[in-house]
Every structure is written in structure tokens, then in C-alpha cells.
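in:
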């Protein structure tokens, strides 16, 4: 495949231009801060939001607003040692078939509680490896969603794919079902790195998957890359980024590996001695970001990149970019309904997470109960701070006074938060002018630290978040 040709005028500035002080990185890397795919974040969810609360929220749904659906399929053929997801390794199809039976029953249960057919503009399948479903099972699941919800004709149907396990038959089924965006896990093209993370995926495997998808009419493709993995170097990650560019993706996500072996015991198989230090991680991210920027891709928020004409880039330019549990998104739905074990949904009243253990999820469905495990009801202050944090994470700049006034609050409600950010300003991590706070381009990877200063829940859950760099 040929590398994408973008006009020189569209070339984005490097999000990592300039020299970074290693002492500054070391100072802030010790912080544990959320990724802010929600606010409040998941560590603050409690059992107080149970099935009865969630059921009431569903019954009160405003059908004049649009919705989106997330379906979690928590199975893989093999464990990638870097993985931080809720997933289970299976060698037989029977557990998947049993799970899909429960998933269908949950869909029916939720749809029955909604007072009518909700209009849906986004459907996202995540995992795990959703494409482990048999093609016929996937097509029947899509048919059920179309039966129980009013899926818009121009809806985005997206799915996460492990190229190592996709078949030509499944790719064709995705196309027949209306899937129009695919996100391919790559992580790194270097064989040494792949061996160290237990994910052998030759370049040819990814290219074959892309060919099948495009033959099926799925033209919108995202690729996922990672930095901070064992044996990676500045040179190797830049090389992987250049290979990815040759595949002409519309978007790329660039995630930092979070080494938490005390939480994910399979990560103990990773040799810590070949992991980069804080400065090395920063330099790896910068190498990838610079490579993508030189090819004309726009930096989107914290860790995404997109072609200039892609809807992500357009919405960022227009100040309409959003962020949810799948990362940066064009999804602006008022209600996100999550299906499957551990999935998280967001309704106007608050957040809901299904039971994480498979047996608890299945038992609830078998007993005719919504499988809600925990959640949190939003306060007016939560909504106010969520909007501010969202705009900061999406735009790198936000007028705190304007956000306050949009919520009917005094423009100075955030003045104390802004006044307490002198250290960030002195370090060049934030800039404040009046009531506008901004993250300088060179400090883009540290934006979560700035966002965290507006988080009134953080103190009680900081230990459960990822490293800042």
C-alpha cells in the first residue's frame, strides 16, 4: 500500500516540539491521574446505583434525544501480556455462544425498559476480540439491535479487530451488517517487541486484514500503536509509525503502556528491565507524534491523530470534539447504553457499569435483573466540572468563566482552582489568561495533570489511576 499523500499546508505542528526538562517529567510522572474518559471517573462508582436505579433512568429516557450503544465482548484466543482490559482467554466457542445468549437477553431487557424506540447514531463493539463471534452470530446480533432500536441510516458502526484472528468470512459479514469503521490493534511492528508482549503479528497479517475490510466496503480504518513497551526505542517506534502510515489509516491512537502487574498479574511476564524510564517514554511518544505530524496528520487531544479532513479533526477545529470510554469520538449522543460484562454506560442522570465478573453478569440476566454492578448519580457540580474537563481534554484550552455561566453559575466559581495552579504555570504545564486556562503544545501529554486540578473527587481514588507520563 502507498503512504498517504497530504498537502503540505495540512501538516500539523509536532505536539512534542521543543526541549522537555527531564526533572519536570520525573516530578509529574509520580502523579496518578485519570484519563478522563468520564467525570467522575470509574473508581468513584458505587453500588448505590443498582439495577433499580438504572431501570428508573431507562424508563425516564427522553426519546427526542439520540443514543449510542456499546457492546463488550470479553474474550480472546491468547493473552497479550501488556493488556489491561477485562477479558478471558477461551479455546472453545461454547463460552462465547453462552455469553452472546446473555447479551441478547440483556439487550431485550434494556429495550423493554425504554418507553419507545431510541434513535441510535453510533454502535461500537469492543473487547476483548469482538470478531471472535461467528459471522452468523454477529449478523443476528446486529439484526436484533436494528429490531429493538431505531438505528439511523447514517449511523457509525465500529468494531475493534485483532488482525491475527480475523477471517475473510467475518470481514464479509461485517460489511453485510453495515459496519463502516474498524479499529485494528497493532501496537508495534517490531518482531522483538511483539515477542516480548506475546503478540506475534507480522506486517503481512495487518495488511491482509485491511485488504479484506476494504473489499467488504469498510473504508474507515483506525490503527492502534503503543509506546513504553519492552525493547522499544525512539528509532523502533518511529519505524513502526512509518509502516503504519504506509497502510493509509484515517486515524491512529497512540497509547502508553501502563505497567501494573499488581493489578494485571499476566504483566509479570514482562521484563521490567527492558522498559523505558519516564524520559524514554516521553521521547518515544514524541517520535511517533513527530512522524505522524510530518505526514500531515492532526494531533487530536491527548493521544489520537487524524487526517485533516477526518471528522475527528473537523470537530476539533470547530470545538465540537467529544470524549467517552472509547477515547476521542464524534459521538455526541445524550445517552450511551453499555451491554455486556463490565461495560459502562452514560445517561443524563449518571454513569452505570455492569457487573465485571462473568458469573455475576450471567446470574443477573438469568434471574431477569439488569446486570448493574455500580455507578454514580451526577450532581450539578459534577456536570459543571465534567464540561470543563471535557473541553480542556479536547481543545487544550477552556474559558472556565464561560463554562460556569453556561451552567447558570457565577463566572468566578473556578477562581480558587485557577489560583491554585501557580506551580503548573511556573513549570510551563499550564498557561492562564484571565479565566482561560490552556495547555501549551509542548506540554500536551501532561494535559491530564491540568484537568485533575478541577477534579474534586480525585483524592479518594488517586491510587487507582495510571501514571501521568
Amino acid at each position: 500500500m502507498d503512504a498517504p499523500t497530504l498537502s503540505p499546508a495540512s501538516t500539523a505542528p509536532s505536539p512534542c516540539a521543543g526541549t522537555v526538562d527531564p526533572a519536570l517529567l520525573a516530578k509529574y510522572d509520580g502523579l496518578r491521574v485519570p484519563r478522563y474518559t468520564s467525570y467522575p471517573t470509574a473508581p468513584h462508582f458505587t453500588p448505590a446505583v443498582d439495577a433499580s436505579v438504572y431501570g428508573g433512568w431507562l424508563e425516564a429516557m427522553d426519546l427526542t434525544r439520540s443514543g449510542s450503544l456499546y457492546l463488550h465482548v470479553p474474550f480472546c484466543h491468547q493473552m497479550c501480556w501488556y493488556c489491561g482490559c477485562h477479558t478471558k482467554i477461551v479455546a472453545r466457542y461454547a463460552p462465547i455462544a453462552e455469553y452472546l445468549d446473555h447479551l441478547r437477553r440483556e439487550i431485550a431487557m434494556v429495550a423493554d425498559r425504554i418507553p419507545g424506540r431510541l434513535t441510535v447514531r453510533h454502535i461500537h463493539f469492543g473487547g476483548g476480540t469482538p470478531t471472535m463471534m461467528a459471522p452468523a452470530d454477529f449478523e443476528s446480533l446486529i439484526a436484533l439491535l436494528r429490531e429493538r432500536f431505531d438505528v439511523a441510516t447514517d449511523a457509525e458502526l465500529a468494531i475493534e479487530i485483532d488482525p491475527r484472528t480475523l477471517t475473510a468470512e467475518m470481514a464479509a459479514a461485517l460489511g453485510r451488517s453495515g459496519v463502516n469503521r474498524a479499529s485494528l490493534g497493532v501496537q508495534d511492528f517490531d518482531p522483538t517487541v511483539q515477542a516480548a508482549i506475546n503478540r506475534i503479528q507480522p506486517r503481512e497479517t495487518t495488511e491482509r486484514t485491511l485488504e479484506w475490510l476494504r473489499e467488504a466496503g469498510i473504508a474507515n480504518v483506525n490503527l492502534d500503536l503503543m509506546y513504553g513497551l519492552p525493547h522499544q526505542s525512539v528509532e523502533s517506534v518511529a519505524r513502526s509509525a512509518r509502516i503504519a502510515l504506509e497502510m493509509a489509516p484515517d486515524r491512529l491512537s497512540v497509547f502508553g503502556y501502563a505497567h501494573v502487574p499488581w493489578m494485571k498479574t499476566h504483566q509479570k511476564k514482562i521484563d521490567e528491565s527492558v522498559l523505558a524510564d519516564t524520559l524514554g517514554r516521553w521521547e518515544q511518544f514524541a517520535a511517533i507524534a513527530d512522524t505522524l505530524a510530518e505526514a500531515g496528520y492532526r494531533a487530536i487531544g491527548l493521544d489520537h491523530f487524524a487526517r485533516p479532513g477526518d471528522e475527528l479533526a473537523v470537530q476539533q477545529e470547530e470545538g465540537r470534539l467529544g470524549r467517552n470510554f472509547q477515547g476521542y469520538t464524534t459521538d455526541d449522543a445524550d445517552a450511551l447504553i453499555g451491554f455486556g460484562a463490565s461495560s459502562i454506560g452514560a445517561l443524563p442522570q449518571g454513569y452505570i457499569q455492569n457487573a465485571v465478573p462473568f458469573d455475576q453478569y450471567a446470574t443477573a440476566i438469568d434471574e431477569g435483573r439488569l446486570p448493574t454492578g455500580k455507578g454514580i448519580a451526577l450532581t450539578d457540580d459534577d456536570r459543571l466540572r465534567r464540561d470543563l474537563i471535557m473541553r480542556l481534554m479536547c481543545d487544550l484550552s477552556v474559558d472556565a468563566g464561560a463554562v460556569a455561566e453556561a451552567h447558570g453559575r457565577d463566572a468566578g466559581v473556578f477562581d480558587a482552582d485557577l489560583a491554585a495552579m501557580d506551580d503548573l504555570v511556573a513549570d510551563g504545564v499550564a498557561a492562564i489568561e484571565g479565566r482561560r486556562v490552556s495547555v501549551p503544545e509542548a506540554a500536551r501529554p501532561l494535559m491530564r495533570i491540568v484537568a485533575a486540578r478541577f477534579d474534586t473527587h480525585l483524592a479518594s481514588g488517586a491510587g487507582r489511576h495510571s501514571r501521568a507520563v
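note: Residues 424 and 430 are 5 Å apart (CA to CA).
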